[in-house]
Design goal:
Strand content: 5-15%
Number of helices: 15
Largest sheet: 4 strands, antiparallel
Helix content: 40-55%
Strand order of the largest sheet: 5-4-7-6
Shape: elongated
Number of strands: 7
Radius of gyration: 26 Å
Structural class: alpha+beta
């Protein structure tokens, strides 16, 4: 990596993207009026009288009018594009995803699907669906690499479970009913006979959507917040290969939980066709993206080159305000408030937190 890219990648890329966006806007709104023109080797954005305004000259004005959200969005794109090379496989995946999304919008909105899709896409800061999907793949990759590098600190593990539902969820008894106890005993007996947890879950779990997967919940970590709290606490306490006693959840019923992986080796060996860390950041920990992206930016060599407004805007968005100034010798720097991060997935499946929604119901 050359010195220029190492030290100036961020400012350079943001200027390029700002310029590209501006030139496109001017072109789109003035088709047939403007001719291609350069001045001093730069594209001319617009002219007033005999004065040409180039892309770099227009940069400051565009920053002021575009706002902080656009600057942060462009920063994220710059980091992602610099850190993760676009592959043909990624392009194919984005194309396939885009086709599926367009089909869904077409089914939902009919002839007005294009405007509905454009409006939703605009909220992400993108105008091209496939570009957005490529960006999401890169963000997942950066966050997944960060999760893998912080495996022990995040307490990453893969969890499976068996659920025996309450006979009457509106009238839960202090102890298992006779019917509930009989089902729980059947599970314990099958496990004691030497059958695997997955085989037992397939036969006995009352979470229908988990039968096919042998009770596999997926990959979670200490930041997971959309699971039933009783279930989550027990799951995080288990060692690799350990099976819990029966755990009573006020919301769902009785859980038998197994930690199928709590080491990198076992976790990765269990995923032959996909990346377990991508599974984590897409499903049960969507909080890692900002920290992962900032770490990657620092690794690449972030340098704001005196652009104080941009530096403050981006540091604030990433919760890194305290890093921008040296702490006083006699006092600890104040910790900045945690930035708002991507919204976590809605709790919609057992043993996820909502008491009103369960898998398969």
């Amino acid at each position: 990596m050359g010195t220029f890219l190492k030290k100036n990648w961020f400012v350079s890329l943001i200027i390029v993207v700002f310029a590209a966006m501006t030139v496109f806007y001017i072109y789109d709104t003035n088709k047939g009026k403007l001719k291609g023109k350069t001045s001093g080797g730069e594209d001319v954005v617009y002219s007033i009288g005999d004065s040409d305004v180039t892309a770099s000259q227009y940069y400051d004005d565009l920053y002021k009018t575009a706002g902080a959200d656009t600057v942060v969005n462009l920063f994220q794109r710059a980091v992602a594009d610099t850190a993760v090379k676009t592959t043909n496989e990624m392009k194919d995946a984005a194309s396939s995803q885009a086709a599926s999304i367009i089909s869904n919008y077409s089914s939902s909105y009919g002839s007005s699907y294009e405007s509905a899709l454009a409006a939703d896409l605009a909220s992400t800061g993108f105008t091209d669906l496939e570009e957005y999907l490529l960006f999401e793949q890169k963000m997942d990759k950066i966050a997944a690499d960060y999760a893998k590098a912080n495996f022990d600190d995040l307490k990453i593990r893969r969890i499976s479970y068996i659920l025996i539902k309450y006979d009457d969820a509106n009238n839960v008894t202090a102890n298992p009913t006779e019917a509930e106890a009989a089902k729980m005993k059947a599970v314990d007996d099958m496990l004691a006979s030497g059958k695997t947890f997955a085989e037992t879950a397939t036969q006995y779990t009352e979470d229908e959507s988990a039968k096919e997967s042998g009770g596999d919940l997926g990959v979670i970590d200490k930041n997971t917040s959309n699971l039933d709290s009783v279930f989550f606490e027990e799951a995080m306490s288990l060692s690799e290969g350990q099976v819990s006693d029966w755990v009573k959840s006020p919301s769902f019923g009785y859980f038998k939980i197994m930690c199928t992986a709590a080491t990198q080796k076992t976790l990765e060996e269990g995923f032959t066709d996909s990346d377990p860390y991508v599974s984590l950041v897409q499903g049960y920990d969507t909080t890692l993206a900002l920290d992962a992206l900032w770490e990657k930016a620092e690794e690449l060599g972030i340098d704001f080159k005196g652009n104080a407004d941009i530096e403050k805007t981006i540091r604030t968005a990433f919760g890194k305000e305290a890093d921008s100034a040296a702490p006083e010798a006699t006092a600890e720097p104040e910790k900045s408030a945690e930035p708002e991060k991507s919204a976590e997935p809605e709790a919609s499946a057992t043993p996820e937190a909502s008491a009103d929604t369960e898998k398969g119901n």
